[in-house]
Amino acid sequence: MTKLIIVSHTNDFHSAAVALAMRDRGHCVDVIHGADFPQQQAMTHRVSPSGSRLVISRPNRPNVTLDDADVFWNRRQITHMLPEGVHEHDHRFVDRECRYFATGTWLGAARNAFWINPDNACAGARRKPYQLVTASELGVPIPDTLMSNDPNEIRSFCGSYPSVVYKPFLPAGWATRDGGYAALFTVTVRPEDLPDDATLSKCPGIFQERVEKAYELRVTAMGRSLFAVKLHSQQLDWGRTDWRRAQGLGLVKEHVEVSDDVRAICEALMDRLNLVFGCFDFIVTPDGQAVFLEVNEMGQWLWIEQAIPELTLLDAFCDFCESRDPRFVYNTKVNPIRLQPYEDAVRLFLEAEAAAHRSPGAWHVAAES
């Protein structure tokens, strides 16, 4: 039996599906909600000459010890949420103390477990400047990229290419007054689209030459198992610059085999970034060259099985957890676990979690710290 710890938050479809499937396989699974700390969750980390012990206490639920975990899935780590009732003058102090305790504790937790992904690797890999520098050092094809808040540099870069795109460093969005949500996608930027210098200098951004696309490629890596999906983003106006905008508008997705050059890129970056899991995004140019855009060290992947049911990624991920092997290779089965039968159970699971735990809201909003 495997003891799996999942660190996540409410409304996370992936952690719910994996928790249910792994329990059905006979494993012990605990989902830890970082947003519950410190208001609905106590963490006690005892360190002595004889060793370290970390216990998480939650009302009306058994305590969880992390020291004996076999697998630690670092799915959506939220360190804490500021508790109610703290004096406004103490907000900064309490926020800082909670953050430093939680981040330091997670680094020391479950040190003998198989981490998906290691905490220190996550911290580096989720930063796009570090990814791009690493890719460049490895000789991986990337777009020419400028990351800056210098108006002169930005205007010069945007004027040096026929077309340039802008993207943020993290997914971002804003709640709208009518209760909706406005997401920020990759957009094409012309020199005349740029705001004034004072505005440009207030916030850095990522500017890249626009690379001509034949299609795009999403590769999900679990150890040494790579699952590739061809995204026909250029067939839809909404998807030409950012395929995510066309997700619900008929974006065609097609399972393809991973080419040798893409496999070499993914494996080299996984090794250099110390990742065991990642979701890679590539542009494939009209002449067939794969151009690396980014790797999301904890990206979404079950949407692929929802679109292409023969790609049994839920079964593969459960096997990956059971293997505890950074060089895991998935062997297809006659009767794998499939996502579709779990859909209703996942919905009920998430409803129960939403009622029992604090919600951090949209984890990827611009205000995320």
Keywords:
single chain; 369 residues; alpha+beta; Rossmann fold; D-amino Acid Aminotransferase, Chain A, domain 1; 3 domains; 5-stranded antiparallel sheet; 4-stranded parallel sheet; 10 helices; disordered C terminus
Q: How would you portray this structure in words?
A:
By secondary structure, this protein is α+β, with helices and mostly antiparallel strands. It has three domains: 3-117, 3-Layer(aba) Sandwich (Rossmann fold); 144-209, no CATH class; 212-297, ATP-grasp fold, B domain (D-amino Acid Aminotransferase, Chain A, domain 1), CATH 3.30.470. The chain is built from ten helices and 18 strands. It has helices at residues 13-24, 91-108, 119-125, 128-137, 151-159, 197-202, 260-273, 302-307, 313-323, 343-356; strands spanning 3-8, 28-33, 42-48, 51-58, 61-65, 71-73, 114-116, 145-148, 164-167, 172-175, 181-184, 187-189, 205-209, 215-222, 225-231, 253-256, 277-284, 290-296. It has a five-stranded antiparallel sheet. It has a four-stranded parallel sheet with strand order 2-1-6-7, covered by helices on one side. Helix 1 (13-24) crosses helix 9 and helix 1 crosses helix 10 (343-356). The longest helix is centred in the N-terminal third of the chain and has 18 residues, at 91-108.
